[in-house]
Amino acid sequence: MSHRKFEKPRSGNLGFLPRKRCRRGRGRIKSFPKEKVSDKPHLTAFLGYKVGCSHIVRDLDRQGSKLHQKEISEQVTYVETPPMVVFGITGYKITVTGLTTATSVLAQKLDDGFRRKLHKRWHTSTRKSYTKYAANEDFDKVREERLKVMEEQCTVIRVLAHTQPTLLPQLNRRKAHVVEIQINGGSIADKLEFAKGLMEQKITVDSVFKKNELLDVIAITKGKGFKGVISRWGVTKLPRKTHKGLRKVACIGSWHPARVSYTVARAGQKGYHHRTQTNNKVYMVGKDATTEQGKFSGKTDFDLTEKSVNPMGGFPGYGWIKHDFLMLKGAIQGPRKRCITLRKSLIPVTTRVAREKVKLKFIDTSSKQGTGKFQTVAEKRAFMGPLKKELEKKREEDLKRLAEERKRKEEQAKLKAEQAKTEEKMD
């Protein structure tokens, strides 16, 4: 017999127990980065929607590596980030039990996308949420009083912002996603002044993240449903002739203690878990497709083809990117169209890889619905030639033109004959 291995590392990580479905469908920010008072006030998070994946080609700039100054191909993920709307300010003060809300200020004009979050059934509700709040005659006075309380008592200032899902029809959603975004940098007075300038304004992703920056991705993973121990925990299958099945754990524990330990792999929910992926690099901060920069976002210094980052036929199951977007290195959790929370890096990294400046040489835009061979429609048409329907249309146009010419010639001949007859009669 061959050598029998009696010990091996356990299958699956116990650090993520319990493996159950997440209660919310959006990644929650549980901690914000540490702030420096010397910095200017700035936002630390943003929301976007996962689009899909592609790949890029670039030169690696890493001294000492065998691939230094050589072309490498890397996977990238696109996250569409339409502008968000700031509609409130919240102040927190430190107590013996931690941070506690001191007071909040909301905008006088609230978008229906946010107000839909406040009603269980929007279509049957009276839709009167915050109408009395906004109709208060002393609205400005009350707001200034609350802001003064924030300045005197609070140590943390956060703004309330919501997305605009109506800008993305493919989401089939009108209820906005709402998030608290902490303001870091400067004094409390500076933060409040910065927050007041953002009230009822739209904020864009380029005001939060820059190219070559590292960020954390917080999202809910793709749900897989109820799975057995082989798929859920990755334990080894039993031999082929095992009685009553082989995709099982052979022994789930000893007689005593007379219970099953939590460390034993069991069947249950797999996927749709809350996960945080740290230090993802931003390869591109893309602009709106209506702008000149966004229209040719797929163009690089090495690839001069005028194209956007959208592949031919669009991203499968999503469509086309039409608003601001981020291109992130590698893959991120969650299926397409899922709301993704993007946060400034909680644990800053200063390694060579993190400090590397990325310069893209080529962005792939071939079709993702098969073996795409062409980067643009013009390239495909130049290679494939005209379509059958175009040839038929051209033939019909040619026949029509020939018929018109023949008719014109016949009319001219008839006219000449009539003129000749007229001249004969005059003679």
Shape: extended
Q: Could you tell me the strand content as a percent range?
A: 15-25%
* Total beta strands: 15
Helix count, DSSP H or I runs of 4 or more residues: 9
Q: Give the helices and strands as they follow along the chain.
A: EEEEEHHHEEHEEEHEEHEEHEHH
- What is the mean pLDDT? 93
Low-confidence stretches: none
Cα end-to-end separation? 126 Å
* Backbone structural class: alpha+beta
Return Rg in Å: 32 Å
In which range does the helix fraction lie? 10-25%
| Major beta sheet summary | 6 strands, antiparallel
Report what the structure shows.
This protein is an alpha+beta fold. It is built from 9 helices and 15 strands. It has helices at residues 112-115, 131-135, 139-153, 188-198, 229-233, 292-295, 352-355, 377-384, 388-426; strands at residues 42-43, 45-59, 71-80, 84-95, 98-106, 156-162, 178-184, 202-203, 214-220, 225-227, 268-270, 274-286, 325-329, 339-344, 360-363. The strands form 3 sheets. Strands 1, 4, 5, 6, 7 and 8 form a 6-stranded antiparallel sheet that branches. The radius of gyration is 32 Å and the shape is extended.
Topology:
Blueprint: E1 42-43, E2 45-59, E3 71-80, E4 84-95, E5 98-106, H1 112-115, H2 131-135, H3 139-153, E6 156-162, E7 178-184, H4 188-198, E8 202-203, E9 214-220, E10 225-227, H5 229-233, E11 268-270, E12 274-286, H6 292-295, E13 325-329, E14 339-344, H7 352-355, E15 360-363, H8 377-384, H9 388-426
Antiparallel strand pairs: 1-7, 2-3, 2-14, 2-15, 3-13, 4-5, 4-6, 4-8, 6-7, 9-12, 9-14, 10-11, 12-13
